[in-house]
Amino acid sequence: MLQLYSACPILISGSCKHETAKDHTALIQAVVNATSNKQNLTRLRVVSLASDGESRHGKALANLMYIAPLAPSSPIYHQLIHLDLMDCFVGLDDITVDKDYKHVFKQLCNTILHESGCVVCSMHLTHVLIGKHLKDSGFSDTHIKYVLDPSDKQDVVLAYGLLKDLWSLPPADPLSSTLTYIKARKALCIYGKLSYHLIFLYICVELSLSEQLEHLSAAIHLILALYVLDDA
Fold it and tell me: What is the pLDDT of residues 93-127, one digit of tens each?
């Protein structure tokens, strides 16, 4: 018997990797149509579609789910219309688009582990610098070597481990640290806080809608602030 939230696999022949976003759009639409046509049997309604990191999938879902703003006749319209920065574009039958949460984890981790490093608050963060701050905060060499391993970019557990370490870092001691060290620690903590607000949405299933929006709002404001800073 079909149960709510049970997996319903759909088998598709192997890809030759030459399909365009338009081809993906047609394929996804066919799956949605087939699912909708069986609602009398499944009693399920498609409300959201999620993409992985494949760029053509993202473009395909954008083609399908960014058709028009949410209509005033929608049951949730009056709950969302007052959120000025809320993206209320939807597809047919109010279907929304999402990103597979595991790719959010991996993107945050891979950005900080990039071989050339990354810049946060005008500070250039590298493997060596991150390792030093983790070491100074009491993490073992074995642990640091594990979480800073860039060889497996698909390891979600590793990604979560590193990001959790970053948002758990304490502030640098102003009495025994140089100004550069303090600025680097602050940059790492800010990146950690950004990661925390984005990840906590997915790992804490007890959050209310209001609490989820608070975390999302904090993450967006941090992203905007980091984006406009010099050398961001």
Answer: 888 888 778 888 888 888 888 888 888 988 999 98
Report yes or no: 120 and 226 within 8 Å, Cβ to Cβ: yes
Closest listed residue to residue 55, CA positions, set 89, 30, 20 = 20
Question: Model confidence over 11-50: pLDDT tens digits?
Answer: 666 666 777 888 888 888 888 888 888 888 878 888 888 8
Q: Which long-range contacts (CB under 8 A, 24 or more apart) does 176-183 make?
A: 183/121, 183/122, 183/123
Give the distance from CA 134 to its chain's centroid.
Answer: 24
DSSP string for 166-177: HHTPPPP-TTTS
Average pLDDT, the chain: 85
User: Which residue, 65, 147, 48, 154, is CA-closest to 107?
Assistant: 154
Percent helix, strand, coil in the chain (nearest 5)?
A: 55, 10, 40
Instruction: Look up residue 21 and give its amino acid.
Output: A
CB-based burial label for 184 (10 Å; 0-12, 13-18, 19+):
buried
Are the beta carbons of 66 and 97 closer than 8 angstroms?
Answer: yes
What is the rounded CA–CA span in Å between residue 163 and residue 171? 16
For the chain, the residue count is: 232
Contacts of residue 168, defined as CB under 8 A and 6 or more positions apart, other chains included, come to 192
Helices 101-112/179-203 angle, 10° precision: 170
